[in-house]
Automatic annotation (TrEMBL):
Record HAMAP family: MetA_acyltransf (MF_00295)
CDD domains documented for this protein: GATase1_HTS
Keywords of the record: Acyltransferase, Amino-acid biosynthesis, Cytoplasm, Methionine biosynthesis, Transferase
Catalysed reactions, semicolon-separated: L-homoserine + acetyl-CoA = O-acetyl-L-homoserine + CoA
Binding site for substrate: 163, 192, 249
Residues of the site described as Important for substrate specificity: 192
UniProt GO MF annotations: homoserine O-acetyltransferase activity; homoserine O-succinyltransferase activity
EC number: 2.3.1.31
Organism per entry: Paraprevotella clara YIT 11840
Protein name: Homoserine O-acetyltransferase
Domain of life: Bacteria
Record site: Important for acyl-CoA specificity: 111
Family: Belongs to the MetA family.
């Protein structure tokens, strides 16, 4: 089935070039199907890039998915055209009466701040609490994963001596969970962060389960409430050149940055990336949509509690 996106969203044309089947909302309205309603709270600065990365993965499913984009009122994006934000994003306060089958909350470039210092922290907390009663399953990515675990469960974050930067081998700890259906015994995931959560802090909290981790990059995935909350500290959604863009950006700025680990062919940037995470990234999002959203959400979306 196709992915149902807002009319004129830039990702539509980009993904059509990749032979991914997407339709706009005008065409979708003629189909007599109850689509899954997914809302994305996009906190990343390059919003169009993040939209395209996420939409690419959400499209790899036989389900029809209707995607909406949410933003926080307390933050103005400096890297995305105002016209784009007005056309495709709604403030949380305008969406808070709606219910959604699934939600994705992205990372944000605010790791260097304590949570309470983030200028939109109060609104983020309100959105987190709202999601528990208005969304069937929420996928928290990178900073959002750390922030959600802190808000709900008091799990602290710790600053790293060096940025966790590269593609790291992960191991499923509960391979029989539906989220890992079709996974191999090991898989790879990009990470790009200056902070971490620690296994011992997660395991102290009843109801939290570490379901994937790495000897190098630490806790990768945490599950709570039977899969209604899934926390991912890495970036399964990253496109092949995202880490390369970040690396070259930081080099140009003169920032202290190591070459991303396990990323470039033969560790030579000029040879480009060796993509090792794309297949499992697609599986992760497809399994989440199928087993934790579609299989669990009520047909009457207003019945979500």
């Amino acid at each position: 089935m196709p992915l149902n996106l807002p009319d004129r969203l830039p990702a539509i044309e980009l993904l059509k070039k990749e032979n991914i089947f997407v339709i706009d909302s005008s065409r979708a309205s003629s189909q007599d199907i109850r689509p899954l309603r997914i809302v994305i709270l996009n906190l990343m600065p390059l919003k169009i890039t993040t939209e395209t990365d996420l939409v690419r993965l959400l499209s790899n499913t036989p389900l029809q998915v209707e995607v909406s984009f949410m933003k926080v009122k307390g933050h103005t994006s400096k890297n995305t055209p105002v016209e784009h934000m007005k056309a495709f994003y709604c403030d949380f306060e305008l969406m808070k009466e709606e219910k959604f089958d699934g939600m994705i909350i992205t990372g944000a470039p605010v790791e260097h701040l304590d949570y309470e210092e983030v200028n939109y922290w109060d609104e983020i907390k309100e959105i987190f609490d709202w999601a528990r009663t208005h969304v069937t399953s929420t996928l928290y990515i990178c900073w959002a994963a750390q922030a959600g675990l802190y808000h709900y469960y008091g799990v602290p974050k710790y600053k790293l001596d060096r940025k966790m930067f590269g593609v790291f081998k992960q191991y499923p700890l509960a391979p029989m969970l539906p989220i890992f259906r079709g996974f191999d015994d090991e898989f790879y995931m990009p990470h790009s962060r200056h902070t971490e959560i620690r296994r011992e802090d997660v395991l102290r909290v009843p109801g939290l389960e570490v379901i994937a981790e790495s000897p190098q990059s630490g806790v990768c995935m945490v599950m709570a409430r039977g899969g209604r909350e899934i926390y991912v500290t890495g970036h399964a959604e990253y496109s092949p050149y995202t880490l390369d863009t970040e690396y070259r950006r930081d080099l140009e700025k003169g920032l202290p940055i190591d070459m991303p680990v396990n990323y470039y062919c033969h560790n030579v940037p000029e040879e480009g990336p060796l993509v090792t995470w794309r297949a499992h990234g697609n599986l992760l999002f497809s399994n989440w949509l199928n087993y934790y959203v579609y299989q669990e959400t009520p047909y009457d979306i207003n019945s979500i509690r």
